Recover the amino acids of this structure.
């Protein structure tokens, strides 16, 4: 098992190395200046030189994203429950949900500063607004997708609507929920960064903004690397939680982890 | 991360200064002032915060979120015209520093050379407004140039990569960064063509003027000392600002501050104390803004934008 995990990890490593090599050669050949497109080696060096800075600010962005994600889940899943439980509520709320998704958060950004200030709150709000939709939608799909045979069976055994809901629908929805959660956690990072662009004194988004102000593209790229690492780490944490929570599900019986499950 | 923190002492006024943007050379006097204790001597514990554009800073002062603001006075005027209870109490620079900048290779040495060229501006900002004025004064039709909009620093990158022939922006911000990337820059300062509007200054909420004018007076006194010291000791000022910052750029900042100093004087300032706001300059600024940015500004009596009451004695 462990051997297989290690060899699985080598695949993405090799892919990244190949991509970096292509990038390196491309920049060498075209002689692009480093404020336009820095070499991967330049970026790597910048990451090492600024490791502490990236860690300190990366930590800030991480906890903003995690909070935004957790709130998305805590609010999102119950909303999905209410929507599936009550048709009138479904009909009234669903269009509003779509509005929050299509609304361009960055347009309202300057107002966010006036309303919420420069603290952690605006980042969490934006992170939440960006991240909660996938959780809600996938949970709704999961709560509704009960096999008709199973539904008939428990009804014939005299199950009440509430019992059906709690014992069948909710457990059944978990794989779908986790699928949405994986999308959501990545978006939560995006949201936190957008929040930092808007109003911040710390975080990787803020670092990228400051670097941008001095046309320090290599530091910006170092910031991007930091963000990618955060996104990947959080994704794998959710993936791990999924494996623990729903080890009984058919999709978990596969040895290899699939990154896209829906 | 709070910048410029001093240790608390008894009976001090705890105030905040909201800058107009992230740290740039022009902010160094305040850091020097905090370090040298000028604000402390006036009984002020000052916390300095970066901003997100002059427009936002004006709103933050209007909403009472911060005590003092460093903002472009053109943005202040726009805020006043919209009904915000704010005023300018001190002018630091008497020229906005707007210029049309281009790389030496482009050969743009005079306004007429802009004909047939592309000019980068910001989509929503003063640079977009000053361009038509500049062209008009030089007898160039707007359709003889091609205006391209780039947000913020994108303009600088575009200029360096020759994606645009020229760009409009404050020369003291652009020249240091462009030259640090090895470029040689041609500058057409709008002020040379009579297009001079006030630069940036200290703004406050009208409530503060009414309820605690003494605090304003003390703050401005410390600010004058800080500015004077920062002009005479530029390296020390930059060093004070570089401490504790996420990514200091002392060389760029030093050059930037040196260029800002050039805009701190004007012909109307003869015999006037530092920070004084000449009525002629405010009239010019209002006139320009009314014509090119918003007619509403033209309807506001100029006295509503500023006050010089904190000077004298």
């Amino acid at each position: 098992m462990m051997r297989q995990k290690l060899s699985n990890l080598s695949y993405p490593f090799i892919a990244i190395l190949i991509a970096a090599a292509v990038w390196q050669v491309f920049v060498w050949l075209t002689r692009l200046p480093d404020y336009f497109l820095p070499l991967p080696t330049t970026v790597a060096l910048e990451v090492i030189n600024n490791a502490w800075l990236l860690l300190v600010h990366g930590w800030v962005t991480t906890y903003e994203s995690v909070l935004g994600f957790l709130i998305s889940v805590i609010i999102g899943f119950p909303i999905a429950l209410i929507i599936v439980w009550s048709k009138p509520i479904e009909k009234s709320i669903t269009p509003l949900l779509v509005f929050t998704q299509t609304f361009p958060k960055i347009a309202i950004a300057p107002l966010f500063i006036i309303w919420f200030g420069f603290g952690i709150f605006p980042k969490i709000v934006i992170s939440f607004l960006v991240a909660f939709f996938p959780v809600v939608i996938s949970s709704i799909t999961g709560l509704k997708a009960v096999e008709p045979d199973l539904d008939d069976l428990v009804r014939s055994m005299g199950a009440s609507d509430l019992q059906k809901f709690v014992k069948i629908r909710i457990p059944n929805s978990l794989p779908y929920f986790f699928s949405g959660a994986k999308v959501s956690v990545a978006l939560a990072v995006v949201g936190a960064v957008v929040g930092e662009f808007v109003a911040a004194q710390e975080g990787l988004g803020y670092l990228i903004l400051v670097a941008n102000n001095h046309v320090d593209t290599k530091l910006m790229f170092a910031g991007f690397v930091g963000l990618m690492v955060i996104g990947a780490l959080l994704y794998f944490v959710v993936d791990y939680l999924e494996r623990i929570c729903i080890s009984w599900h058919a999709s978990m019986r596969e040895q290899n982890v699939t990154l896209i499950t829906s | 991360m709070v910048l410029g923190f001093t240790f608390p002492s008894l009976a001090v006024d705890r105030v905040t200064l909201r800058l107009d943007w992230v740290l740039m050379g022009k902010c160094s006097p305040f850091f020097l002032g905090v370090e040298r204790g000028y604000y402390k001597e006036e009984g002020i514990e000052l916390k300095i915060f970066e901003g997100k554009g002059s427009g936002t800073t004006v709103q933050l002062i209007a909403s009472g979120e911060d005590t003092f603001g460093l903002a472009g006075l053109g943005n202040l005027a726009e805020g006043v015209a919209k009904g915000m209870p704010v005023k300018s109490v001190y002018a630091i620079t008497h020229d906005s520093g707007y210029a049309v900048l281009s790389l030496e290779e482009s050969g743009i040495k005079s306004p007429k050379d802009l004909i047939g060229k592309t000019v980068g501006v910001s989509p929503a900002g003063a640079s977009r407004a000053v361009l038509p004025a500049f062209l008009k004064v030089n007898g160039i039709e707007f359709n003889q140039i091609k205006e391209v909009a780039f947000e913020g620093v994108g303009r600088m990158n575009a200029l360096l990569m020759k994606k645009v022939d020229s760009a409009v922006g404050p020369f003291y911000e652009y020249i240091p960064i462009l030259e640090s990337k090895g470029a040689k820059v041609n500058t057409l300062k709008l002020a040379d063509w009579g297009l001079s509007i006030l630069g940036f200054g200290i703004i406050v909420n009208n409530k503060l003027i009414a309820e605690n004018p003494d605090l304003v007076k003390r703050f401005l006194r410390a600010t004058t000392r800080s500015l004077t010291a920062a002009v005479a000791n530029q390296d020390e000022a930059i060093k004070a600002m570089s401490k504790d910052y996420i990514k200091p750029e002392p060389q760029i900042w030093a050059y930037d501050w040196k260029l800002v100093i050039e805009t701190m004087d004007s012909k109307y300032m003869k015999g006037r104390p530092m920070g004084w706001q000449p009525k002629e300059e405010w009239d010019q600024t209002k006139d320009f803004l009314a014509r090119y940015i918003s007619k509403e500004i033209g309807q506001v009596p100029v006295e509503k934008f500023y006050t010089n009451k904190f000077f004298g004695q």
